[in-house]
Design a protein that fits this description.
The chain is mainly alpha-helical and about 290 residues long. It has 8 helices and 3 strands. A 3-stranded mixed beta sheet has the order 1-2-3, covered by helices on one side. Helix 1 (about 5-20) runs antiparallel to helix 4. It is elongated and about 85 Å long.
Amino acid sequence: MWGIPISIGVLGLKLGAWWVTGSVALLSDGLESLVNVAAAFIAYFVIRYAQRPADEDHQFGHHKAEYISAVLEGVLIVVAALLIIQEAWQAVLAPAMPEAPWLGLGINAIAGVINAVWATTLIRAGRAHRSPALSADGQHIMSDVVTSAGVFVGLVLAVLTGYAILDPLLAIFVAINILWQGYKVISHSLGGLMDKALEPEEETAVHEAITNHCGGALDVHDLKSRRAGSAAFIDFHLVVPAKMTVREAHEICDRLEDAIKAVIPGATLAIHVEPEGEHAHGQTVSIEGIGK
């Protein structure tokens, strides 16, 4: 929720910096902040929707809505970059020195500091809650901070050297950087929409939890996983002795569920129990000599 007023305030500061200077580079920085405002509104409503519990129509929950927010933000970033390039090219053809550059740079610097604090907060929250929308928003704002720093240095050089063309050239550089950030946000989010598996370190943690808590089982295979926002879904086949009772097999499943959820918070598991002699397939977890 705080992202909305903060992004609007930063946008106001950056547009004010552009207003007093007429700098195309500062205008490009302001246009990127306009994307931040739109992204803040989108993220606020989408994250609230993604937190809704599972219902009859969405029995696995609404977690993937966060990836939609991140994709939309990536598209907005690309649009902002194209607008910046259009403005900058016109300025390249007719370069002009910014007016009152030091006042504008001072205002822009204040906006940059606010953005840096807020971006760090969002990135930490995104990691803590495994939220693609918060992470994408934080990473984009952090790229905005880098952009602002580059604009500051570039405009100082333009003023000190008298080369007015540095202003629009700097704006084009900013646009290219924004395009790269937009590409990264979109590609990461599409991976989530396509049911990307857990990260390698998470997969390793799941393997260790299984091998250390599968006492009584004979084999584990067909292990699959996918990540959907803050939720993780894991399923596998558990092979047990043919003479084992349902209760004994269920006790093994309970141990495995507790162990896996301890290393992958929020995980949802589906364990298919089958008797020995079935043909193993899919990803196999080596449990020989461990957890027995």
